[in-house]
């Protein structure tokens, strides 16, 4: 097996090769560092690289296994953390020139958990400024390109993670999702991105330990890989009151094989409530046969999400003002316009505005709960557009409908965020010119494991994850050392 084939193995297969000592952690790391050196200049997915630190960790992992010590579930797997995640001793910029040289003193909780599970951190993945927007570019590191077409967007805000996975530079990656930041780039890059239930992966430290909108979650090339990483990320934390009590090891991949009946609501066009590229609608609609072939009952239906825009826009703006408002007076000149707009929207909110949004949110939850009394899974588009030209900040119109803000073109994701339900993006097909299309599966309340089981069944029926992007021709150096 050559190094490129090793780098494209599912993480579940790779970790078994490591645990059985058919490959050492140092060999696996070396293969991925070699691939990063050759591929990353063209893609620009990994923006800070710490090879010496990674090599020391890989050596320690090999020595531990040689002594007969237990191997963690992620033993020896290379990983790079999203550049919003705080990593002790490793630069964390949040894609902002304000923090271009910021080196945290402590790790975020998810970094601790992933390291304790045996993964080897080799660097950071690119993100838009403060994670704002579903196209990954920033003034610190530039733009991340889609491995399937370097002239197209990789999505965002976990675009660096998705592009690195698709191009074989990482076997697993973490990301975060407020309005689609795990799901959108996964769909754009033909990988899997899972938005778990709020509280499934506790975020610490946090500006708001009660936050039920923004979540951290796993990405991988397969559903099994995502479940494996989730098993290390998930589990309660007493400092985070919304954290769920179920332990992370409930998500080990062996638990994905249980089969249960499914009642699927299929919504290829989201009941006409938002403009969607007809190629995406046709692809999602074509999978009625896939779902029925699994023995599932399929019915066209879509929940009533009236008011989701007001809820999402209001509570997102409130979060921007809460988290970034203190930067505005002194750093306005170093903030991108859309971030300034979101902060100012939040600062202008009144108590009545927030109260109205919360009442609407409660009404949506009641209607969605009633909808999922009839269904186990909702199947719908992840995105409303296919990967767009990399030079655009965001799509200004979708199917002739003008987008009022930089957020409107992702309604298919943020409307699902408002439901509070787990959701996953799984590869679903390609356009005639080779651009990936994903399908979004939405599960019942706290039904993360059942949703992963459904997603794995769909994945096995289609096998679309196996289609690799073309090898890039190279480009200007993009990897940077801390």
Mind sketching the topology for me?
Layout: H1 3-7, H2 11-19, H3 25-43, E1 46-49, H4 51-66, E2 78-82, H5 109-116, E3 120-125, E4 137-138, E5 142-143, E6 145-146, E7 149-153, H6 159-166, E8 172-177, H7 183-189, E9 192-195, E10 215-220, H8 223-233, E11 263-266, H9 278-286, H10 288-293, E12 297-300, H11 308-324, H12 328-331, H13 337-347, H14 351-371, E13 377-381, E14 397-398, E15 401-402, H15 411-417, E16 423-430, E17 436-442, H16 448-462
Parallel strand pairs: 2-3, 11-12, 11-13
Antiparallel strand pairs: 1-3, 4-5, 6-7, 8-10, 9-10, 9-16, 13-17, 14-15, 16-17
Helix pairs in contact: 3-4, 6-7, 11-13, 11-14
Count every beta strand, where a strand is a DSSP E run of 2 or more residues: 17
The total tally of domains equals: 1
CATH topology: Amidase signature (AS) enzymes
Determine the structural class based on helices, strands and strand pairing.
alpha+beta
Give the % helix.
25-40%
Count of alpha/pi helices: 16
Q: DSSP strand (E) fraction?
A: 15-25%
User: Uncertain segments of ≥5 residues (pLDDT<50)?
Assistant: 475-482
Radius of gyration: 21 Å
- Main sheet specs: 8 strands, mixed
- The general outline is globular
Mean pLDDT value: 96
Provide the CATH top-level class: Alpha Beta
Measure the end-to-end span: 31 Å
Strand order of the largest sheet: 8-10-9-16-17-13-11-12
Corresponding CATH architecture = Alpha-Beta Complex
Tell me the name of the CATH homologous superfamily.
Amidase signature (AS) domain
């Amino acid at each position: 097996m050559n190094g490129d084939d090793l780098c494209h193995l599912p993480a579940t297969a790779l970790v078994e090769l490591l645990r059985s000592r058919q490959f050492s952690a140092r060999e696996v790391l070396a293969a991925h560092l070699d691939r990063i050196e050759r591929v990353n200049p063209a893609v620009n997915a990994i923006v800070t690289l710490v090879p010496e630190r990674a090599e020391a960790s890989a050596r320690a992992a090999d020595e531990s296994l040689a002594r007969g010590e237990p191997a963690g579930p992620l033993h020896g797997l290379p990983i790079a953390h999203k550049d919003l995640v705080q990593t002790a001793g490793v630069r964390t910029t949040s894609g902002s020139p304000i923090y271009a040289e910021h080196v945290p003193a402590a790790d975020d909780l998810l970094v601790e958990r992933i390291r304790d599970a045996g993964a080897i951190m080799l660097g950071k993945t690119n993100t838009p400024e403060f994670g704002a927007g579903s196209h990954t570019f920033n003034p610190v590191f530039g733009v991340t390109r889609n491995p399937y077409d370097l002239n197209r967007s990789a999505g965002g805000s976990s675009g660096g993670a998705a592009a690195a996975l698709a191009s074989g530079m990482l076997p697993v990656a973490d990301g975060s999702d407020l309005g689609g930041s795990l799901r959108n780039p996964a769909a754009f890059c033909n990988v899997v991105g899972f938005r778990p239930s709020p509280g499934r992966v506790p975020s610490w430290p946090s500006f708001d330990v009660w936050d039920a909108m923004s979540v951290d979650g796993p990405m991988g090339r397969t559903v099994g890989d995502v479940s494996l990483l989730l098993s290390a990320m998930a589990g309660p934390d007493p400092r985070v009151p919304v954290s769920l009590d179920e332990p992370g090891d409930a998500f080990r991949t062996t638990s994905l094989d249980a089969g249960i009946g499914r009642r699927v609501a299929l919504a290829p066009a989201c009941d006409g409530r938002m403009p969607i590229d007809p190629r995406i609608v046709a692809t999602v609609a074509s999978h009625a046969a896939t779902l029925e072939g699994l023995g599932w009952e399929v019915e066209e239906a879509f929940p009533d999400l009236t008011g989701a825009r007001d809820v999402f826009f209001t509570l997102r703006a409130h979060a921007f003002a809460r988290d970034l408002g203190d930067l505005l007076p002194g750093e306005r000149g170093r903030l991108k316009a859309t971030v300034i707009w979101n902060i100012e929207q939040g600062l202008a909110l009144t108590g009545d505005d927030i109260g109205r949004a919360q009442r609407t949110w409660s009404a949506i939850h009641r209607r969605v709960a009633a909808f999922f009394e009839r269904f186990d899974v909702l199947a719908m588009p992840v995105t409303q557009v296919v990967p767009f030209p990399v030079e655009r900040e965001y799509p200004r119109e979708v199917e002739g409908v003008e987008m009022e803000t930089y957020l409107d073109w992702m309604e298919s994701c943020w409307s699902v965020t408002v439901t509070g339900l787990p959701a996953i993006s799984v590869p679903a097909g390609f356009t005639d010119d080779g651009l990936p299309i994903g399908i979004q599966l939405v599960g019942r309340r706290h039904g993360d494991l059942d949703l992963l089981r459904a997603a794995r069944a769909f994945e096995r029926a289609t096998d679309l994850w196996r289609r690799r992007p073309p090898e890039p021709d190279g480009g200007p150096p993009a990897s940077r050392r801390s």
